[in-house]
Amino acid sequence: VELVESGGGVVQAGGSLKLTCRINGWTFDDRAANWYRQIPGKDRQFVAFIRSTGDYAYYDESVKGRFTISKNEANTEMYLQMNNLKPEDTAVYLCNWVEEWGKGTLVTVSP
Q1: Cβ 76 vs Cβ 20: under 8 Å
Q2: In angstroms, rounded to a whole number, what is the distance separating the alpha carbons of residues 105 and 58?
Q3: Mind listing the pLDDT tens digit for each residue in 8-51?
Q4: Are 11 and 108 in contact (CB under 8 A)?
Q5: Whole-angstrom Cα distance, residue 73 to residue 94?
């Protein structure tokens, strides 16, 4: 199984980005999946969770109301729509499924 994130980049505060996590070798409909983020030198922080059925999600308080987690119908991709981005959202964003982790995609939000 391989998880590959994409969609990171540099954006100004208030802007939006959509991250994608593609799963190779399996599908997301078997287990729940998560997005995390990590600032270098700090612990990994939970961002969002989506149930395997895709009908339930929850978020860290710091992103609630701004970020939305979702999956495609084929359960081969998971997304994180990020709106109203803030400089404190700057981090490497990682996809997690069971014990598998992607390498991450860097999001940089400038003031």
Answers
A1: no
A2: 21
A3: 999 999 999 999 999 999 999 889 999 999 998 899 999 999 99
A4: yes
A5: 21
**The one-letter amino acid at 83:** N
Q: What is the pLDDT of residue 30?
A: 85
Q: d(Cα 14, Cα 69) in Å, to the nearest integer? A: 19
**Pairwise CA distance, residues 59 & 19, whole Å:** 15
12: its two tokens: 């100004």
Write out 18-85 in H/E/C secondary structure.
Answer: EEEEEEECCCCCCCCEEEEEECCCCCCEEEEEECCCCCCEEECCCCCCCEEEEECCCCCEEEEEECCC
What does the angle CA 78 – CA 82 – CA 85 come to, to the nearest 5 degrees?
Answer: 155
pLDDT tens-digit profile of 74-96? Answer: 999 999 999 999 999 999 999 99
Residue 53 to residues 3, 44, 60, 68: CA-CA distances in angstroms? 19, 25, 20, 16
